[in-house]
Amino acid sequence: MQIAPDAFFLDPHYKGSLQQQIQHIVSQGILAGRFNPGDKLPSSRKLSHHLGVSRITVTLAYGELLSDDYLCSRGRSGYFVSQSAPRRAVFEPTAQPDRPTIEWNRVIGQRYSSQVLPEKPSDWQNYPYRFIYGQADYTLFDHHNWRLCALQALGKKDFSDVTSDYYERDDPELVKFIALYTLPRRGIFARPEEILVTLGAQNALWLCAQILLTQRRTAAMENPGYPGLRAILEQTRCKLIQAQVDDEGIVYEGLPEGVDAVFATPSHHCPTNVTMPLERRQGLLDHARKNEYVIVEDDYEFEISFAKPPAPALKSLDSEGRVIYVGSFSKSLYPGLRLGYVVAPEPLIRELRALRATVLRHPPGQIQRTVANFLSLGHYDALVARMSQAFANRRTVMRGAIAEHGLTVAQSDTAGGSSFWMRAPDDVDIEETAQRLRTLGVLIEPGHVFFDPKDAPRNFYRLAYSSVEASRIAEGIRLIASQF
Amino acid sequence: MQIAPDAFFLDPHYKGSLQQQIQHIVSQGILAGRFNPGDKLPSSRKLSHHLGVSRITVTLAYGELLSDDYLCSRGRSGYFVSQSAPRRAVFEPTAQPDRPTIEWNRVIGQRYSSQVLPEKPSDWQNYPYRFIYGQADYTLFDHHNWRLCALQALGKKDFSDVTSDYYERDDPELVKFIALYTLPRRGIFARPEEILVTLGAQNALWLCAQILLTQRRTAAMENPGYPGLRAILEQTRCKLIQAQVDDEGIVYEGLPEGVDAVFATPSHHCPTNVTMPLERRQGLLDHARKNEYVIVEDDYEFEISFAKPPAPALKSLDSEGRVIYVGSFSKSLYPGLRLGYVVAPEPLIRELRALRATVLRHPPGQIQRTVANFLSLGHYDALVARMSQAFANRRTVMRGAIAEHGLTVAQSDTAGGSSFWMRAPDDVDIEETAQRLRTLGVLIEPGHVFFDPKDAPRNFYRLAYSSVEASRIAEGIRLIASQF
């Protein structure tokens, strides 16, 4: 059969090149049985004319389809669907349930959908004044070298390293780099056996909580603190203590006896950005020793410290192995990367690794190797340096605009980071303000999600400068101030 | 200061090019404070002479370091460490715990390290007769197009899609492809809202188990069955029923009343490879309806059905939304990819998604988009076709060798797959045999890990042909037979 050019039409929403769209149409048509072995394809001349694309585009697409054995070529007579082309059975669904007849309320044994997480519109990038936190800045990212590092990770040389299924280890190149280069910068000495790679810091915190906590145990977290952690701890059904936070970080004196694990962000408190001073750190470690609890240190964003030199990690002061350290690469690269790690004594790493194997096996090998390459060649630190420079500039602009418009910063001075923690007048419900600001093109983050939901103030908010151009900050702040 | 060429030495174990090794030495030297701003680098002539590499290699490395601002160039006077080069504080660890003083036995609340998983030596690829299961075959993989698809996923155009942090959705391109092209081939009709992308099938099964089961609920799994699933179900502390398996798959008649969820592999039972006939499928669905349980269908490896046309999925017969379907791309691509999906009614997907957000947020965006591209251009099915052809050939060779040497196949004929399920004489402990075979360069998989550990026979084993060349199969089988 001769396939008519009319069988081809271009989808304006197709993601990819014209050549790829032709490959897509032909291969999926063959797989679905619309085009059959022996069918003759339109000549490149006819198809290019019909689609309004260049003839070479069609020829290149046919060439690719040839090498995947979808097509074969019979010299001057043209291209045909190959007799040995990949085929797939397509089954008509016997039953298409219009609506499920199962009572899911009864079937679902455990619910998780009630958790509160910071929300952002999915088209946040189209807002001009996007004071939202933790998204990659397209203009600062090093696309070129990141792609080169990914390509190398996908090369034939590294194939078995990145494709194998392994539970008992991680990418040795990445673990070596973390041990030799990353951790010393935080004052931490660790052997490879004491490091576990995780699917981002969230996954690291989750794994630690599963191992350390049970329904009969007690955990403490900072209030305000990281909402992703609150969801984790609530799901363990442990007893959860809300620890107070002041200008020096978590206040340990008020912790009740019998607490088993304290989760803290000493270097850069979430969300107020304060750094815990040395004296408080020593005090916290003494308190932990006396009361026999362990500390899970989430060292997120330590790299972005452009204002003051960074303090070493809490774990660097830990002589007992009492501090479990959580780090992340997603913050400085991009959140969709999902790569973090835990540093802890071996008996704990062994359990974390076993649990990780059941839950997800391991973080994808190609991501681990890509990051290892990017780190090893110095691109990572060059990127962090570029980000720090940009963030320092944005912060100066933002501080000026905040002062000019009389907004209130609710934190002491910090070493850096990518946001300000703000307080609106007491009678303001910031969620309503945030809704109104959206219509003006301004995105801010209401702060109640960081607090114990039983007792969350409504007038705090976070203003991040990691995804907003410096030139737009002043106008954005003016718009926010106009709402109070 | 002039940096002497002696500061450079090449590591013969370095993974990467000579140029990259020079970039690594310089960037890490600067970051660690061994080289300081203003220091002059060896000339490309001197350094190339010292290292025994070409001068252009050094020049290219210096050029890359220039663009990352590690170096600056002062015309004819050469290269210097940049005044604004990325720096990092390095802290001496205050405390280096020789051994942790924490009693980890007391601190660890929940243990996971006792699970039994199939083991393989980490250097399995160096064994000539590697009858092990589920590893990617280097010689069949389409490196070229895979890398192109990864490159495209990492392009500027897709940047925000792959880098964003999102909980509430997956890559729309991947989900669309699964709904429109992958599932119809299994006879399944599903809307995007009924699909959740997971970190491999293991992660999909784990998520389902968490939602469906509690300590008060009952699950059934096949015996023998998938050991990764057994670990998952044991960790939920539900009541676990071992369901019998015969030549037609799981035997549902023996299931006790009150079972809440049955986990099965109808299309391709693990590990015996049998396909459940239509009548048994209808019976299983009727039984599920009558006894009000849900079925989790693990449709692993359905694509590798070269011997007979594949049967549609059990879910295609499901008119109630009672079957939860688990699929995977890792089997045909490579296990280290970690990408699978769940198809289920929306109320369940909502809970699975919320749990996934707490545990790991989402599978990395760049992996999702790379697979979407590879699928969309037809490369995936071309790869599966190539694999099927190779596997069909290897299976023929293996069947012949097995017959010639009088080994016993413990399964009925199957539609395909990548392994034979085998039985050694009753008095053989196959683990001992496997140990002896290793010394002969032969890797086989003892079968006890697939059985309920309380009552596991010691004489079953699995012989996979997915990672062994056809030319080596006969000799490998001869060596195995020589042990009985």
Automatic annotation (TrEMBL), chains A, B:
InterPro entries: Aminotransferase_I/II_large, HTH_trans_reg/aminotransferase, PyrdxlP-dep_Trfase, PyrdxlP-dep_Trfase_major, Tscrpt_reg_HTH_GntR, WH-like_DNA-bd_sf, WH_DNA-bd_sf
Domain HTH gntR-type: 16-84
Residues of the signal peptide: none
MF term (GO), any: DNA binding
SUPFAM superfamilies assigned to the protein according to its UniProt record, in alphabetical order: PLP-dependent transferases (SSF53383), Winged helix' DNA-binding domain (SSF46785)
Keywords: Aminotransferase, DNA-binding, Pyridoxal phosphate, Transcription, Transcription regulation, Transferase
Pfam families linked to this entry: Aminotran_1_2, GntR
Name assigned to this protein: PLP-dependent aminotransferase family protein
The species this protein was found in: Oricola cellulosilytica
